[in-house]
Please model this.
Amino acid sequence: MNDFIAARSQMALSLGFHIVFSCIGMVMPFFMAVAHYYWLKTDEIVYKNVTKAWSKGVAIFFATGAVSGTVLSFELGLLWPGFMKHAGPIFGMPFSLEGTAFFIEAIALGFFLYGWDRFNKWFHWFTGVIVGVSGLASGILVVAANAWMNSPAGFDHINGQYLNIDPIKAMFNDAWFSQALHMTIAAFVATGFAVAGVHALMILKGKNVLFHTKSFTIAAAFGCVAAILQPLSGDISAKDVAIRQPAKLAAMEAHFHTEKSASLLVGGIPDEEKKEVNYAVKLPGFLSFLAHGDFQSEVTGLDKIAPENHPPVAITHYAFQIMVGMGMAMMLVSVLYFLALWKQKHWLNSPWLLKLFVAATPLGFIAVEAGWTVTEVGRQPWIIYGIMRTADAVTPMPGIAYSFYLFTAVYASLAVIVIFMLYRQIKMVGTLYDKA
Amino acid sequence: MLYVVITFLWTSILLYLLLGGADFGAGIIELFTSKGNKAVTRKTLYSAIGPIWEANHMWLIIAIVILFVGFPVIYSTMSVNLHIPLTIMLLGIIARGTAFTFRHYDAVVDDMQHVYNSIFAISSFITPLFLGIIAGSAVSGHIDPQADTFLSAYIFSWLHWFSVSVGLFTVAICGFLASVYLIGETQNEHDRLRFAHKAQFFNIGAVICGILVFTAAYVEQIPLIEWVFGNWVGRIAIVSATLSLIWMWYLLYQGKIGLLRPLAGFQVTMILLTTTYRHFPNIVLFKGGGYLSLLEHSGQEKTMQALGLALLLGSVFILPALFYLIYSFQKKPLEAGSADH
Ligand code: HDD
Ligand code: HEM
Ligand code: HEM
Model:
């Protein structure tokens, strides 16, 4: 494995690992706040048990999220010193604010986790909400930094120099809003479906049914609302990408030839040599509509883009298909769930709906990973779109492959331990949290 | 604004050394504690730092963010030449952070606890060792921008007697801080004595490592003596640190523990002050006399302005909240060993 590929793989691995924990860290505090609120309002002990059980899980995830995030802030320099030397001062604004957000989050978490029966109960509740709000804020900020890589702003690039830096403009770049919105909703979708799925499984198994039903209801409500909003926000993202990164859009859709009234492809295997896509279902005009809101409009294809600036088409295309596929599937489940809540109450008691949720457990996180693959691989060969190539940013240090193997082993073992601990948490619900 | 940013940088490093250091130290103490006493050490540690655990480690993040936003050349140069020790330190941070949490939140208490404990203790040693190595290497003059072999560019930049001694010295300081810190958390005379002994042990350790550092500096022709004693600030700092150390030991034998922590904190602050004062603003010294300076290698005006404002704004929110957190749990400590919270 050459050093450049190794560095990219290590970055992808670390980010792909971290994003799981950050989604949970951003969203779970809100689930807990709801359960906690019901406990304070209704005095039903089951809500307290749910809050406490969740908070243990969150502590585990938070610690793993924090260390993997710490690793990332070093890795940016360890792997991409050429990038950070120039980018640091420009896209640093969100990171410096993010530092504050993290700090507040860590402090509030201290209050929340260790503050049971010590503080005024509403103050204690409020610290939990603060954990969530600052988590969301840090997520949005760091996405703004990533958006800058997609849509650089706030400086003049003259003869290889980065002049007239304006960190505020850089932060509010063109991609900022669509990415932050889409990512925030994605975190709710992914965490909501994952948590709902686990509790649905426990209900099906007939264990601590009341406990798991309450948990399920909270998680499913958040997840399903978000899953219905997500395709709408995805549409905003797609229109945005069409304007600022036509190469990425073309790769997402394996759209080799510029044309009017372009068709949207569902599935299909792109052949990059022959510049065609086999076995795809074509929806005529829909790509034009997705990209520009008009069935007749022209969509730029890869033929208009210099070959040395093409992103990897196949990976981007598959990843996009996966994201959209998962998105549609979860939207369907959500629609069924809301039908059940409002019109068909008896569905709630029949196992098939719960089984659907169990089946959907991993879909949200798969979509998140796929979505980031679209964004990041679709930006290649640029690390700063149109300004700096990824290959020019990589560290000169040889032997990165070994570092990649090492981190792969570390993250794989961490993943195993976290899953193992989560399994034990769930297994112990009956003894620790819900003794009835 | 540049000076505001530099002050924040220095302060975060200091706070990381003091707070993060105390909790690395707690792990180091575990490593040097006989089997029977380990459990007490662990419980004391947990009730002392559980709630502020996450916050202590944020200082490192703040320092790194300041470096990469405000001083990108320094950040990227260190990232390249000190890639290997940085990676090892990161592995230590991963292992420590997760092991600390896992051992308290694992729903089932069984043999896994031994695994978490040993990982925690060992990584508590490795992480500050490499932090020290990194700091030592930055000023050792061993980083060679002209290096053309793998060994000279990526290994000998950090692997030499001086930086290893600085690493060991850092470990000893952490152990010392933690012992002093934990004395204040103990419930009975027996434990108090035990931690006092630990403090003594690490104090002596720090002195030995300190001598080692000076010896290594002498051998490798690093003008450390000149840096430390060649100016008034350094001399005053060293003398007052030594006096406060004597005072501290006097108080300890008198059984008065109220002032111990501030005194230990003062000593470490003085050590950091002397070692950074003389070659400020240069924080990376290259082989052959080149250097990277906080004043000359900072970001552009607007960046520093924004960074400084962000930091000031941040501290308005963070500091009161942090003090309140520490205060609440000082006033009414966690029940030692309570797993339920
Ligand atoms: C639960 C997760 C999830 C779901 C169901 C979807 N997405 Fe997504 N998508 C993401 C999670 C995600 C993400 C992981 O959050 C990304 C990566 C970067 C970003 O900002 O969001 C993303 C990126 C992303 C991008 C690239 C944005 C950019 O590079 O700036 C586009 C065009 C879409 N999405 C479009 C869609 C569409 C049309 C969907 C229709 C169903 C959809 N997404 C569902
Ligand atoms: C957490 C969610 C994210 C995921 C899953 C993710 C995923 C990826 C992937 C798959 C790559 C490799 C692309 C390739 O080489 O083909 C990559 C590269 C990279 N990403 Fe992201 N990314 C995320 C967010 C971010 C953010 C927030 C930043 C920065 C602020 C960032 C910075 C980078 C950098 C510097 C590279 C390496 C250069 C490159 O390959 O272009 N990423 N990421
Ligand atoms: C889209 C990508 C990202 C999102 C949404 C995100 C979000 C989050 C969130 C919500 C947390 C809180 C910890 C938790 O709850 O587990 C966190 C932790 C952290 N993240 Fe990320 N992050 C992303 C990428 C990055 C990148 C690229 C970096 C580094 C440059 C980074 C650095 C950190 C650090 C240092 C922490 C630890 C903070 C602490 O101790 O609380 N993150 N991240």
